[in-house]
Amino acid sequence: MLVASGFQFDANFYFSKEDYYNGCGDNHHISSRLFKQNCELALLDPSKQFNFNVMGKHYGLQSKFAQKYNPNLYYFPFPMIVSVVAYNFYSAFFSNGTYGAGGVANYKSISNIVSFTFAI
Hints:
By secondary structure, this protein is mainly alpha-helical. It has five helices and two strands.
């Protein structure tokens, strides 16, 4: 979030947290709406995993949501790079181990990481 002249502008959108404006000032806690959306996308994927395709779709939906409902959204290069890279976190870096070492980014591992459950 950027703060300029007393106005707050969100400069990114994150895969598991609402932005400052859409989260009513709470851009720190995991969003049940976003976790549910992400789980639904993973369920629709043939692999049933939080892979790069699923996370890309999730990023696109979150981007459209933020553009539609956040009048203070501002595209600033560095935070946008961080948010794009963050979407790779589940599928590449934090799924029952490390990427390339047998980790599986499925519902069981991801729900344990974020301590959330969603009725499948």
